[in-house]
Amino acid sequence: MRWRLRPTASLCKSNGPATWARVAPAANGKRQSPINIEPAKAQYDPALAAKPFSISYDPSKAGKLLNNGHSAQVTFDSEGSSLTGGPLDHKYQVAQFHLHWGKSDDTGSEHRIDNKMYAAELHIVHWNTELFKSVGDAIKEDKGLCVLGMFLKVGKEHAGLKKMTDKLAQIPYSGDSIDLTEGFDPTPLLPSDTSKYYTYLGSLTTPPLFESVTWVVFQEPIEVSEAQMQAFRSLNETAKGSSVAPGEDDFKGKIVENYRPPLPVGDRLVRSSFKV
User: Fold this and answer.
1) Domains of the chain by start residue, with CATH
2) Model confidence over 17-59: pLDDT tens digits?
């Protein structure tokens, strides 16, 4: 589904986030994501600190790097990976990771910390392999998914992400993909300190918006270079040979501002693994 959004309250073109309830009834739910995280209101939970994450990936199980028209994504065969600990009661395995970013360095992340946005946000998506037989089953159900979220700030080049950004020029158009025959290890994409994070029950941030996600948003951002951010911003949202109708796109067909605005927290509990 092609969509565009901007970081303002009135976002929407004809198929922007405000219209998603037409195609994704879950949009009207009470645990939608992303949210604005207010550290002062987060509840410190020592049980989280007592269950440190155990995270492992098999780089050889990386599949494709693709431009899906609204993000850059790396897919994985889940076999050989494992995510346990923290707020999780089951074993999860990796399915893919993707990013959300803005047109400039002060806008782009989906989650916010006291209304602060980062240049981008990276999501590593995992599915519960103990309760479900496939990602397709897990994505629809409570406790089906766990997404690890990392904020990206602009500074020095990120060596781990460079293995992705150096290849983005090979997938300029929607539908383009390449095989990652040399593998890809997501481990370097994690912050150096995975013990400090916020967690809450939420949803996918794009249609179908299923409320199946245990979110883990790390406090510590990872650092990327301006050139790496520009590599993401150079991707096209349209297929090769096609174009966006004049007047319908302020960004000349590029994938930018591809994030959903924050949704109400409501009565949900946001927990932290550390004392703020």
Assistant:
1) 17-272 (3.10.200.10)
2) 878 888 899 999 999 999 999 999 999 999 999 999 999 999 9
